[in-house]
Design a protein that fits this description.
Number of strands: 25
Shape: elongated
Strand content: 15-25%
CATH topology of the largest domain: Rossmann fold
CATH architecture of the largest domain: 3-Layer(aba) Sandwich
CATH class of the largest domain: Alpha Beta
Number of domains: 3
């Protein structure tokens, strides 16, 4: 034994940094350096925000992935866990603009190039925050392959995908309703919108012979029609007719159309159609283009009413609504008001500004259009892959959700009106020609040499570039990495981005590589507080992983995160649970201390050999250990990590510490049973350290080093899993 004298207590803070240093210096995070030549096993890390410290959700996915990687490494696989960090487009731009604001500056006082360079420097200065957090959690990822989502190699691949899609007719420029944030002046994805339940007045307006209800009287200036349900007998006589209405700007006429989208139970069953400021109305107009006029925008990108609204021009929406309601009441245009209308309102997840549905030109990907090479659409390729189990979900309910979402899939807007991100490589000619210029070398239009070229000011939606992450990272990281490690094995991430990221990775991978990006999708639940509430700084219930690591050690945090919840279910987490797992770490330390004080150095030579039992206590503990090895192995193989750690915990605490260690005290005093008892004790300890290593890597490695020394080839990380 290298060093069998253990201190009385385990000092996680003193040990963990040194242990991680030894792991990195061993080189075994890199699969090319592993002493075994098993089959490759790959996980691509979902890149956390490069600009911010890790939150508890990051700790969750990093723990799960490290458990799987450490287990597969110990099974003799050639494991690659490829790390990376995310430029986090809109989110980082918001943070950086706050910094500029504190300095009395604004991006609108800068050139785009100046802003980008300063934002780049800002992110690089802070990138260490997330990377240090990944290390603090004990993550055994291959830092030699670490990538950033704005790495030139990644951008080149993203551009190649866009260019190919443009050539294939899958990318187009379209005018549709966008989720527009007036404060940040950009369109947002659905993921970047949150929905708040609010109680607002529902105004009943007099529209000639009809009455209709709306929460947005300020958009009446942009109405292009009125709609009823075709099965609503109350209004059948008006369908196809023009009705004369009175407005704040004078009389006008609107045509009444019939559309199944109208809910007969809402308000009076009559709705106004404002295609420039409502997604449902926009779609309704598209179905009835031959009956009613097109969109008539009356609200600008700044969230203010425009010149078409007469005396209300330049008023912000909320101000305009208040004044318009007063004026409508005076004119008798509001018949009644329901003050208790409950509905969901979309707001920007960063600034909480109410989202304005506006028509803003965006780039879209056609999701249901067959490919020109004869392959089915992006959607259909992904659906087929899941149906055929080429890509499988750990939880069947997520597969069902995936299929349901795919049925109603819309074309994907991939442009954002921000400056921090991957610029869209397009130039527009004054003649109308669109030129995809991924090398930024085109200076004249190929069809109109005298035309004026302007660069597209937009950037790619972060999900478009990160949707290519599995194959892009491996194509960028090394000359043979893609051929060796792709497809990857597991995509592990939160269930809340199943549609925004996972589905798109599947579609884009089949499009670009003809292969699945990963074999299995493991979706973990969201970490919540002990009462099941969402964790947030504003609620005062946020749990800092680093603070918990400093107080209780990394292993306690990791075990607490995976101990009690199965894949896909939200995780209630309280500090008490982490504290409890610190007690478990102490118990393991005390077990090892007892075993090492009770055994001889030569016993370690036989530590990997299963001894034959001599007493009933011997037989029971060995049978229990065999069952535990089988259960832990099966649990990890089937992604039931909570069951695995529970089995290892129960054996360690109850069977080994509480029962056998007590029985061993008398057996060690008996010369007939002493040697065999020592062998069983050391065998149990060594096996338990292996079983617990993926879950609690620091304390197990520390104890292993006390047994076998700290030479790289002796590290527990590369020892073979017990069978």
């Amino acid at each position: 034994m290298a060093n069998t004298e253990l201190p009385k207590n385990y000092d996680a803070k003193a040990s963990e940094h040194e242990v991680y240093r030894r792991w990195e210096e061993s080189g075994f995070f890199n699969p090319d350096n592993l002493p075994h030549e098993g089959e490759p096993y790959t996980i691509i890390m979902p890149p956390p925000n490069a600009n911010a410290p890790l939150h508890i959700g990051h700790a969750m996915f990093l723990t799960i992935e490290d458990i799987i990687i450490r287990y597969q490494r110990m099974r003799g696989r050639k494991t690659l866990w490829l790390p990376g960090t995310d430029h986090a487009g809109f989110e980082t731009q918001v943070v950086f603009e706050k910094k500029l604001s504190k300095e009395g500056r604004s991006r609108f006082q800068m050139t785009r190039e100046e802003f980008y360079q300063e934002a780049w420097d800002f992110v690089q200065e802070n990138r260490h925050l997330s990377e240090e957090g990944i290390r603090a959690l004990g993550c055994s990822c291959d830092w030699s392959r670490n990538l950033f989502t704005l790495d030139k190699r990644i951008v080149k691949i993203v551009y190649a995908t866009f260019k190919q899609m443009h050539q294939d007719g899958l990318v187009y420029r379209g005018d549709r309703i966008s989720n527009w944030c007036p404060k940040h002046q950009t369109g947002l994805s659905e993921l970047e919108c949150t929905y708040e339940e609010r109680i607002d007045p529902l105004y009943y307006l007099k529209y000639g012979p009809l009455e209709l209800a709306t929460v947005r009287p300020e958009t009446t200036f942009g109405d292009t029609g009125v709609a009823v349900n075709p099965r609503d007998e109350r209004y059948r006589q008006y369908i196809g007719k023009e009705i004369a209405i009175e407005t704040l700007l004078g009389p006008r006429t609107l045509k009444v159309i019939a559309d199944d989208a109208v809910d007969q139970a809402f308000g009076t069953g009559v709705v106004k159609i404002t295609p420039a400021h409502d997604a449902t109305d926009f779609e309704m107009w598209q179905r009835h283009k031959d009956e009613i006029p097109g969109p008539n925008p009356v609200i600008g990108k700044d969230g203010r009413l425009n010149e078409k609204t007469g005396p209300y021009e330049s008023l912000k929406v909320a101000q305009a609504r208040e004044k318009i309601v007063v004026d409508m009441k005076e004119r008798g245009l509001i018949t009644r008001v329901d003050e208790s209308y409950t509905h969901n309102v979309a707001v920007c997840y960063k600034c909480n500004s109410v989202i304005e549905p506006l028509i803003v030109p965006q780039w879209y990907i056609a999701m249901t259009k067959p490919l020109p090479d004869g392959r089915p659409s992006l959607r259909d390729m992904a659906v087929q892959a899941v149906k055929n189990k080429e890509v499988s979900f750990v939880s069947e309910r997520f597969e069902n959700q995936f299929m349901s979402w795919m049925e109603n899939l819309r074309d994907w807007p991939i442009s954002r009106q921000i400056w921090w991100g991957i610029p869209i490589p397009v130039k527009f000619c004054s003649c109308g020609e669109i030129i995809v210029d991924t090398e930024d070398t085109v200076t004249t239009c190929p069809t109109c040499p005298d035309g004026t070229l302007t660069r597209d000011p937009d950037t790619f939606d972060t999900w478009f570039s990160s949707g290519q992450w599995p194959y892009a990272t491996l194509q960028a990281s090394g000359p043979n990495d893609f051929e060796t490690y792709f497809p990857t094995h597991v995509m592990e991430t939160g269930w809340d981005i199943l549609f925004f990221w996972v589905a798109r990775m599947i579609m884009l991978s089949y499009y670009r590589t003809g292969q699945r990006p990963f074999k299995t999708v493991y979706l973990h639940g969201l970490v919540r507080d002990a009462k099941g509430q969402k964790i947030s700084k504003s609620k005062g219930n946020a749990i800092s992983p680093q603070e918990m690591i400093d107080k209780y050690g990394t292993d306690a945090v990791r075990v607490a995160l995976v101990f009690s919840t199965s894949a896909g279910n939200d995780i209630p987490l309280a500090e008490d649970k982490i504290r409890g797992m610190k007690h478990f770490a102490n118990k393991l330390w005390n077990i090892a201390r007892f075993v090492l004080m009770s055994t001889e150095p030569e016993d370690l030579d036989h530590a990997h050999e299963r001894p034959e039992p001599m007493t009933d206590a011997d037989r029971i503990i060995l049978e229990k250990l065999d069952a535990t090895v089988a259960a832990v192995t099966h649990g990890i193989d089937t992604f039931a990590l909570h069951e695995s750690i529970q089995q290892a915990y129960q054996f360690t605490w109850d069977e080994l510490a509480r029962i056998y260690l007590e029985a061993s005290k008398s057996q060690l005093m008996d010369t007939h049973t002493a040697e065999r008892t020592r062998r069983i004790l050391i065998y149990c300890l060594v096996t338990v350290l292996k079983l617990l290593h993926p879950f609690a890597p620091f304390i197990t490695e520390e104890l292993w080093g006390r047994l076998y020394g700290t030479a790289p080839e002796r590290t527990l990380m590369i020892q073979r899993w017990p069978v």
